[in-house]
Write a structure and sequence with these properties.
This protein is of the alpha/beta class. The protein has a single domain, classed as Alpha-Beta Barrel (TIM Barrel). 37% of the residues lie in helices and 15% in strands. An 8-stranded parallel barrel has the order 3-4-5-6-7-8-9-10, surrounded by 6 helices. Helix 4 links the parallel strand 6 and strand 7. Helix 4 packs across helix 5. The protein is globular and about 55 Å long. The protein starts with a strand and ends with a helix.
């Protein structure tokens, strides 16, 4: 495994990380999830991602339970808050009340004293950024959080957070978690430049475009037990299942074959070509998928190959 610093911080995270969104505590049985997490750890992955809203805490529980046999200092584990966790008016958002209550609830579910990273799962237009950052800063002072992060914040929102943190001498955010893959590249225009300016790294989710960049949906066929076949999940993948995208996937698979590698490895290596990307966050439902995905760290894409990929994507 190879490791990168998370933004401008001293924290080193594995280039491939493992998440629990749409998998653990939901579509993957606990014993398979545990085996998958153990395989990831054995392969050198030290970065494990979850959130309170993933199956109302079940994703957190399964992931933390699988990691409990390892020394706490040997892995980095995350959680998040923003999305509704109840029916009450204060059961959502980024208010001081909701953040503190959700961090405490997450720690209890995971049986941990602290999480390494806490993410603001989206930007909250109804709560002052100052209130949000000060609540996180307090939790950092209490030792319950080590680093602050955000997810899917715009360049302007990240910049606002930096100004507020500096004005009130609060801990700065060090990481943003956006969606990023060959077919979803909005962060390249503004988010990455602003993040580089302020020392914020990207931990990107859906680097394989919800599985489309594995090649398993060629011919617009939906295999059994795939994400697209799951009625509660396929809303996240439908945007990728069109003729134009699938045609490009076939061409990209040709590039992968020329390099004697797999399409998923090519897609992950392409994501990791970005210096501002600290880690590519995968969602694996079985150990063999982790084994395949970690191969990407040894692939170096030449300028010629990158240009060929750009020609296909354009």
């Amino acid at each position: 495994m190879k490791y990168r610093n998370l933004g401008g911080s001293g924290l080193k995270v594995s280039e491939i990380s493992l998440g629990s969104w749409l998998t653990y505590g939901k579509s993957v049985e606990d014993n398979i999830a545990e085996k998958t997490i153990h395989k990831a750890y054995e392969l050198g992955i030290n970065f494990f991602d979850s959130a309170n809203v993933y199956e109302r805490g079940e994703g957190e529980r399964v992931m933390a339970s699988a990691l409990k046999s390892y020394p706490r200092e040997s892995y980095v584990i995350t959680t998040k808050a923003f999305w509704p966790m109840g029916e009450g008016p204060n059961d959502r958002g980024l208010s001081r009340k909701h953040i503190k209550e959700q961090v405490n609830a997450s720690l209890k579910r995971m049986n941990l004293d602290y999480v390494d990273i806490f993410y603001c799962h989206r930007y909250d237009t109804e709560t002052p950024v100052n209130e949000t950052l000060r609540a996180i800063d307090d939790l950092i002072r209490e030792g319950k959080i080590l680093y602050a992060g955000v997810s899917e914040w715009s360049a302007a929102q990240i910049e606002e957070a930096m100004r507020v943190a500096d004005k009130f001498l609060l801990d700065r955010i060090v990481v943003n978690q956006p969606q990023y893959n060959m077919f979803h590249r909005y962060i390249e225009k503004e988010v990455i430049p602003v993040s580089e300016k302020y020392g914020v790294g990207q931990v990107v989710f859906s680097p394989l475009a919800q599985g489309v960049l594995t090649g398993k949906y060629k011919g617009n066929k939906i295999p059994e037990n795939s994400r697209a076949s799951n009625g509660s999940i396929n809303q996240f993948i439908q945007g990728f299942l069109n003729e134009d995208v699938l045609k490009k996937v076939e061409q990209l698979e040709g590039v992968a074959k020329e390099l004697d590698t797999s399409l998923p490895s090519l897609a992950l290596a392409w994501t990791l070509r970005q210096p501002n990307v600290a880690s590519a966050l995968i969602g694996a439902s079985k150990p063999s998928q982790v084994e395949e995905n970690v191969k990407a760290i040894d692939i170096k894409l030449s300028d010629e190959v990158i240009q060929k990929i750009e020609g296909i994507l354009e």
